[in-house]
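[Meeting: bench + compute handoff]

Bench side (C.D.) handed over the final construct sequence. Compute side (W.E.) agreed to return the predicted structure before the next meeting so the bench team could plan truncations. Sequence as handed over:
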Amino acid sequence: MKISARGIELIKQFEGLELEAYQDIAGVWTIGYGHTGADVEPGMRISERDADALLQRDLKPRENSVDSLTKVDLNQNEFDALVSFIYNVGADAYRGSTARRRLNRNDRMGAADALTWWNKATVGGVLREVAGLTRRRAAERAVFLTPSNPPIVREPNNINDNSRVTPVEDAPRRDNIAESRTVQGATVAGGAGVAASTMGRDSAEELDQVETNIETGRGVTEDPSAGEGSTPPRSQVDDDIIVETDDGSIGAEDETAEHGEIILDDTMQQRPSKHQVHAVEAQVQFALLVLIVLAVLFVFIARFDDWRNYRR
């Protein structure tokens, strides 16, 4: 199969004509209608006839690639669009593309949509969308979907090419609810909120219990018999008097110690400071609160984006 005059004009429209060699956006030396290769050198000049000849020569391997890589029958418009596509992205790119896989499954609408995904290029080391590529992919998609034959209007069972059926709006929807950015943001915000509130409640209860234990002389833990780090109740301290030193620590004053010397039992520990004991929890709580705020903002932005793109 060969490309038609319409397909050639499509390629010429987007390739443009340059009769003097230049470096394209990727730094490749180019001349004519996008012709590249070892025969293109700086300072090279050609005529428009030479440019047409180079284009015809370059089209042949692209046409062969469409024929060899496509397993379904194509009409002329589909073939023209694919030749233009390969002329721009290359045969290897088409071989591994989603457009080819969908087309070979006879999903022509899906293949046409997949052509439009090829609208980005690496410029200056950064991958970004190129407006010219976006326009070219849209034009190729339009040509690809243009029927070669008149639309069928009399056969109700064959409606693929019938544009006279009454249409209804069906905005794009995500396949499952887990893909909804609104649900994802709400889940993150809810989880962070539960974690923050639980941590705050547990921290408050723990601190209240510690303060109560200290005031009643039971020690600095919720359970005086918890083991290492606990302080036995006053009834279990033999010949010692529980005292609070000037630096806020709990100790035992040995009645036999000279000059009232304070002797700290190994099981005693310094009275915890509210800021010291709960510093980490407070930092985590703050981080969770920030996460909640960001998640809520994400939900609002996602909803606005959905409305802008899908009007839903």
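W.E. noted at the follow-up: The chain has two domains: 5-164, 179-220+272-310. C.D. will use this when planning the next construct.
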